[in-house]
Design goal:
- The complex is a heterotrimer of chains A (about 160), B (about 180) and C (about 180).
- Chain A has 2 helices and 8 strands, in the order αβαβββββββ.
- Chain A has about 160 residues and is of the alpha+beta class.
- The longest helix of chain A has 21 residues, at about 5-25.
- The mean pLDDT of chain A is about 85.
- Chain B has about 180 residues and is mostly helical.
- Chain B has helices at about 10-15, 20-35, 35-60, 65-75, 80-90, 95-120, 165-170, and strands at about 130-135, 145-150, 155-160.
- Chain B has a two-stranded antiparallel ribbon.
- In chain B, helix 1 crosses helix 3 (about 35-60) and helix 2 (about 20-35) crosses helix 3.
- Chain B starts with 7 loop residues before the first helix and ends in a 7-residue tail after the last helix.
- By secondary structure, chain C is an all-alpha fold.
- Chain C has a domain at about 1-90: Orthogonal Bundle (Rna Polymerase Sigma Factor, Chain: A).
- The longest helix of chain C is centred in the first third of the chain and has 23 residues, at about 15-40.
- Chain C starts with a helix and ends with a helix.
- In chain C, about 40% of the residues are buried.
- The chains are: A alpha+beta (about 160), B mainly alpha (about 180), C mainly alpha (about 180).
């Protein structure tokens, strides 16, 4: 206890304890059990100038695509286990298979496959921020194009 | 010393004037009769007197006028602007307090960094940094990868096959976004 | 009637330098004695004593009267002394030469030369024994011995409880007696 009376030793001791504690917290960071994957299927077109109010959170991102109109077709969430996969039915006879691979540095690695019927259209592996998203688009849909917002949250 | 060792502390408190009336009187009476306690008192007083004598003699040599002039000089001396700030800082954070404050701040910073990953509400919803595309296979189709910096959006755009796929759609909408 | 310390402080706070001068006059020797008891070196003690009053002058506007002026002043003195002790790097020989000067300056004349020699040796031994104490123990013994301050006042000055003051005093006195037993 005499050691604690010396200010410099106190600084060093508690800094060391803090660092150890933080490292332990980092190590002990709970590995997420599941990933909640959310797919927003959106119709982007130039038919009119309507913007679906349900897409407000994504507006800035969607405006990047420079279409005039955006309408939410389907919004679906599923819990997907790590190393497992789930299939989301997408308008236009398509399906999206999402398989979370790993969680590291607060980023989620996802394998994604877009198929049309039995035909694969796109395979991609992306790494996104936890609670972040990316946009996958292009397949034609109802006079416009299909845009998918794919987001993932580790739980 | 036999039997009266436990009284030494009480004798010290008595000589220091820290005993109440009844306790002091009782001890005084005992010390007057007990040779050991009387000796203990004598030794304590001897140390006190000697130390006082040494320091008092020296202190009396300190004359007021030269001392006061030296203090005035310090008061009138122009201090660099940062001295006052440093003094205030030292007063607010003496070494003992700083010794606790420094690791506390480090611990708080580390906790904040660690907590960020524990508390979902800490992170603003929709926060995004660029998705990293590690691989793409479009099965022979053209594909574009776009990064929009303002919104940190990553877009994978799958272009239609130029021949035959959904001709009707091509008439009403561009096959790709206008980026 | 002489103004009280608090009245003088209020006058200082109103800008009267003469009031501060009066306070310095009242306490400069006592402050010096306390500091000398802690530092055991005259030059350093004088320097720190002057610095104590300089700091007191700069901080006097913040003195609220929550404690007595002298405990507030001694607190500044003790803190500066502790800082100075940390910087102080003197070998025992320097210390003895310094304190010999103190002994020579005393005007005491003992009729018994052997008694005088005995006292001189006792003082030297006492100085060394005090110097061997930790700063915390030195502080309590000096404040109690020189100033006769209560345990409560000493606790206020040093920022510790009365119980701590009591136990430190007991420890310091025991150490001094152990080292000076042949002379007591």
């Amino acid at each position: 206890m005499m050691l604690l009376k010396k200010p410099l030793l106190r600084v060093l001791l508690f800094s060391l304890l803090s660092l150890l504690g933080a490292s332990a917290a980092g190590i002990a960071q709970k590995q997420p059990q599941n990933v909640q994957v959310r797919i927003g299927a959106i119709l982007a077109s130039n038919k009119n100038d309507e913007f679906d109010s349900r897409l407000k959170p994504l507006e800035k991102q969607l405006r990047v695509l420079k279409y005039r109109s955006y309408r939410l077709l389907k919004d679906e969430s599923q819990d997907v286990p790590w190393q497992g996969n789930k299939v989301f039915e997408i308008p236009g006879g398509r399906s999206l298979m999402v398989a979370p691979q790993e969680f590291q540095d607060n980023r989620i690695g996802l394998k994604v496959r877009l198929t049309e019927g039995q035909k694969p259209l796109l395979d991609t592996t992306v790494r996104i921020s936890n609670k972040g998203n990316f946009i996958l688009g292009g397949p034609p849909q109802e006079g416009g194009v299909l845009v998918l917002s794919i987001s993932a949250t580790a739980q | 010393m036999n039997g009266c060792e436990h009284r030494v502390e009480a004798i010290e408190r008595w000589l220091d004037g820290e005993l109440n009336g009844a306790e002091a009187e009782s001890l005084r009476a005992h010390v007057a009769e007990c040779a050991e306690c009387g000796e203990a008192r004598r030794r304590l007083e001897k140390i006190q007197q000697t130390l006082q004598g040494v320091l008092l003699a020296d202190a009396q040599q300190i004359k007021f006028q030269p001392f006061w002039r030296a203090v005035q000089l310090r008061i009138n001396e122009k201090q660099p602007w940062y001295h006052e700030a440093l003094e205030r800082l030292r007063d607010t954070f003496p070494a003992s307090r700083a010794a606790w404050a420094v690791p506390a701040v480090i611990a708080l910073l580390l906790a904040a960094v660690s907590l960020e990953s524990y508390l979902p509400f800490w992170r603003s919803s929709g926060r995004n940094s660029f998705a990293t595309v590690e691989s793409i296979d479009a099965y022979g189709r053209n594909v574009a990868l776009l990064r929009e910096y303002d919104t940190k959006t990553t877009v994978i755009w799958l272009y239609q096959d130029q021949e035959g796929e959904n001709d009707a759609a091509e008439e009403t909408a561009p096959s790709g976004p206008a980026f | 009637m002489e103004p009280t310390d608090l009245e003088l402080v209020k006058q200082c706070q109103a800008g009267e330098m003469s009031a501060f001068q009066e306070l310095v006059s009242r306490y400069h020797q006592k402050v010096y004695m306390v500091i000398l008891g802690l530092l055991r070196n005259r030059e350093d003690a004088l320097e720190v004593a002057q610095e104590t009053f300089f700091r007191a002058y700069r901080k006097i506007s913040g003195f609220q009267g929550g404690s007595s002026f002298y405990t507030w002043l001694y607190r500044i003195a003790v803190n500066l002394s502790i800082d100075a002790q940390r910087r102080q790097k003197r070998n025992p020989l320097d210390f003895r030469e310094t304190m010999d000067g103190v002994l020579e300056s005393q005007n005491e004349v003992a009729r018994d030369p052997f008694a005088d020699l005995h006292d001189k040796e006792l003082r030297e031994k006492l100085n060394r024994a005090i110097n061997d104490l930790t700063p915390e123990h030195k502080a309590v013994i000096v404040l109690r011995t020189i100033e006769g301050l209560s345990y409560k006042d000493i606790g206020e000055i040093l920022g510790c409880s009365e119980g701590t003051v009591m136990s430190r005093l007991h420890y310091a006195r025991k150490k001094l007696q152990d080292k000076l037993s042949a002379f007591l």
